[in-house]
Design brief:
alpha+beta, Jelly Rolls, Arc Repressor Mutant, subunit A, 4-stranded antiparallel sheet, 3-stranded antiparallel sheet, 42% helix
C-alpha cells in the first residue's frame, strides 16, 4: 500500500524535520503500519529491509547474548528512526528491534531512503544530529547498567517510556521488565516493591503505573537528564 494512508503529514518528528524536497521524494514510498507489542522488526545480523519511523509506537533495541540473556540498549519512538544502520552502509545490526509499546509507524524500503540520504546534505545533517543523540544514549546505557542501582535504572526506564507515549500506565509484566533491564525477576520485584512503598508507582502482575513523576526524577540517576537533553530537538509532544 504505497503512499501515506490516513494522514495529512508525518507524526514522527524526525520525518517531519526532513527537507521539503526530500520528504516529497520519500513520501510515495512510505506506508503506515500498525505494530503489535512484541513484534520483532529486525533480528541481529540479518539484512534490514525496511526502516521505521515510529509515531506512537515505542521500539526497544535489545542486545542479546548467545545464551539468550537480553538487555535494552536503546529506546526509539516518535523522535527517531529504526534501522538507521542500513542508510550508513551497514545492512545489519547486532541488536534486535522489538516493539515495546504498540502503535503505528511509517516505514519505507531501506534502499530507497539510502538513495535520498546519499543525495541530500541537508538530510544528512538531520540524521547526523539524531545519530549523535543515539550514540550518547547507547554509551550512557553502558554507564547506567554498570554503575547504577536497579531502582535508579527502573525509574529512568519508566520515565523514558512516559516521555514517549505520554501515558502513566504501562502493560509491563515483571518478566518483560527483567528482559529490558537485563536482570532477574526477583531483582525487578524488589525494585518495584521499593518504588511502590515510596509512593512513586503502582504495580500489579501485569501493569505498572507512575504515581509521582517528580519523585521518580528525584531518585533516578543522571543518565536520564543527559540522554533527554540530547533529544530536545526531537522531543515527542
Amino acid at each position: 500500500m504505497p503512499g501515506i494512508q490516513g494522514s495529512v503529514g508525518p507524526e514522527n518528528l524526525l520525518l517531519g524535520r526532513l527537507p521539503v524536497e526530500a520528504y516529497g521524494l520519500l513520501s510515495p514510498s512510505l506506508e503506515r503500519v500498525r505494530l503489535t507489542q512484541g513484534r520483532v522488526l529486525h533480528e541481529p545480523l540479518r539484512d534490514i529491509t525496511y526502516i521505521y519511523f515510529p509515531e506512537d509506537a515505542v521500539i526497544s533495541l535489545m542486545s542479546v547474548t548467545e545464551h539468550g540473556e537480553s538487555i535494552e540498549v536503546g529506546m526509539i519512538s516518535c523522535e527517531g528512526i529504526v534501522g538507521v544502520s542500513a542508510i550508513l552502509g551497514a545492512m545489519s545490526t547486532p541488536f534486535r528491534a522489538i516493539v515495546q509499546a504498540p502503535g503505528t509507524a511509517m516505514r519505507a524500503p531501506a534502499d530507497r531512503f539510502g538513495v535520498l540520504f546519499n543525495g541530500s546534505p541537508s538530510l544528512q545533517a538531520i540524521i547526523h544530529r539524531y545519530l549523535h543523540g543515539r550514540l550518547i544514549q547507547l554509551s550512557q546505557s553502558a554507564v547506567c547498567n554498570r554503575f547504577h542501582t536497579i531502582e535508579q535504572r527502573l525509574a529512568r526506564w519508566l520515565l523514558d517510556s512516559q516521555d514517549r507515549i505520554h501515558r502513566a500506565i504501562f502493560p509491563y509484566t515483571q518478566e518483560f521488565l527483567s528482559d529490558m533491564l537485563g536482570t532477574d525477576r526477583s531483582s525487578v520485584s524488589l525494585a518495584l516493591g521499593l518504588l511502590k512503598r515510596a509512593g512513586l508507582i503502582g504495580s500489579t502482575r501485569a501493569q505498572v503505573s507512575i504515581v509521582d513523576r517528580k519523585g521518580l526524577e528525584d531518585i533516578t540517576c543522571e543518565c536520564y537528564q543527559i540522554v533527554r537533553a540530547e533529544f530536545e530537538l526531537f522531543e515527542c509532544s
